Structure prediction request, 631 residues.
Amino acid sequence: MSDRIHTLSGYIHEYQRSVNDPEEFWARIADSFHWQKRWDKVVEWDFDKPDVKWFTNAKLNITENIFERHLYTLGDKPAIIWEPNDPNEENRIITYKELYQMTNQFANAMKSNGVGKGDRVIIYMPMIPEAAVAMLACARIGAVHSIVFAGFSSTALADRINDCTAKMVLTSDGNFRGAKSIPVKAVVDEALEKTTTVEKVIVYQRTKEEVTMKSGRDIWWHDAISDQPEEYKAEVMDTEDMLFVLYTSGSTGKPKGVVHTCGGYMVFTKYTFENVFQYSPGDIYWCTADVGWITGHSYIVYGPLLAGATTIMFEGVPTFPDAGRFWAIIDKYKVNQFYTAPTAIRALQAYGTEPIAPYKLDSLKVIGSVGEPINEEAWHWYHSHIGKGKCPVVDTWWQTETGGIMISPIAGVTPTKPSYATLPLPGVQPVIVDAEGKELKGNSVEGNLCIKYPWPGMIRTTYGDHDRCKQTYFSTFKGMYFTGDGAKRDEDGYYRILGRVDDVMNISGHRMGTAEVENAINEHPKVIESAVVGFPHDIKGQGIYAYVICDMEGRSEDNLIGEIRETVNKIIGPIAKPDKIQIVPGLPKTRSGKIMRRILRKIASKDTGNMGDISTLLNPEVVEAIIKNAK
Ligand code: PRX
Prediction:
């Protein structure tokens, strides 16, 4: 593992090297992978178009780098340890060799059902090993997977199927979450009424609840793999062929399909995984994310498996059967690296230290955080009570679009600082720019966070709409990738992420566009207009506050609010349900008709002391009325 950083001076040296000669730097890291054909050029890029290619003309299959490369040495080593929702149900331990066979078998099953290289496959599944098998089988045959978080509604699922014109859906009958069993296949059935491209649906039997199977379209997973060989020769992929599409929210109403490609994503996820978590052979690693989000893609499946690690997959929730479940799992498997979200930390912090007391947690070496800013109080609680004061907290900043971790401590190697993501990883060149795009050099500066040089794991395009990629990420500040986040670099040069500067909220670490929620609210027939903002929430980080103008004729406010909430649930899913809905007589607008969200954000966060100058508003009187009835 020549690309491993072990000391602070090693970090400084590697960082300088990566800036002085990025091509030499990345070529050295990429050299340790198995390529069917080596690259002609390390990177070719133009951020204006944008057009970015890594390891040009190289050929590979990412699954050969997971399986063939490890089978001789690690064949009998556990690749995935699966912990079921119900602690009394038996767990599953799947070795590299078994995972390889399962992947090949399912690859053959998909092939026999008409899916080939370049076809899009939607994965809408619970947290079971078969979700990883589905991803890897797609990668093995060159199909493009697009995972939709199994908590999204049928409408959201249908939109994604239609956007990428998917040919196949992989799903399950149901999903065990805590004390509940949630229907999954039924949601797929509903979604498929609004789509025309899906030819086959393969259904894994998990909960054994009754589902309808449409003849000619729906096949049971166990039937699809029976008689399929456990060998499949990996498809030869170009480094820039699509590996997957993952939909994420932006500032417009429609989620966009972030496209990642084979070679660069592979190199970046393994490199960042090994370094940030200081993974050593034999370690047991656990990331609590869901495979429906980018964290699950990069740091449950691809990064750890490329590194030959043992990765835990947990089906359930942190509070079932009780609030000690995470800690029980850490002790049960002697977890060495634990990676979770601030919202989970805050939720468990609220139960106090009693649920932790029965557990030793002494196997832990590194604890990580991802998805949203971690407040100092939660950082300290995590550090003292879970890390017992001896485990470095890696606060990892990154995005769906970056593919992997960009700014983060390297565990035990570079310093940590509560609520700071600290320093960029070697190979990552962040800059802070002012509103005009001028780079703010030196320390003690604050502004918009951009990246000025490409990195292998970066977004290549937005599916089916390249111009959207250009407009969203490469047009605000010329010649740079714009993250949408605000950041400060403190007097020591450490980065602190300040949150989104666009109309994107971060609800329990999940990205949600304000416009997306507004569109859903506006579907209710009594709604005339709405405006949505985020507000500080103790557990979720941000909550959703909706201001709604309604036609109230013949309706009670309480009923209407309940119905609006249900409309959002149906159109997007439970994660987008507003925490607060206020029926208002009007929305504060400028003379050109633009909603003044700044004012609405202040009211939602109960910061009404100084509303700033509102005299230029078209309707200053509504501000008072909204404040009076604020929730
Ligand atoms: O605002 C930042 C926040 O999450 C956004 C990315 O969301 P998503 O694409 O869903 O990916 C989440 C998992 C990587 C960022 O623009 N964010 C992510 N990590 C951090 C963070 N904010 C502060 N600190 C972090 N460590």
The pocket of adenosine-5'-monophosphate-propyl ester is lined by residues 248, 294-295, 370-373, 395-400, 421, 483-485, 497, 499-500, 506, 511 (CB under 6 Å). The mean pLDDT is 96.
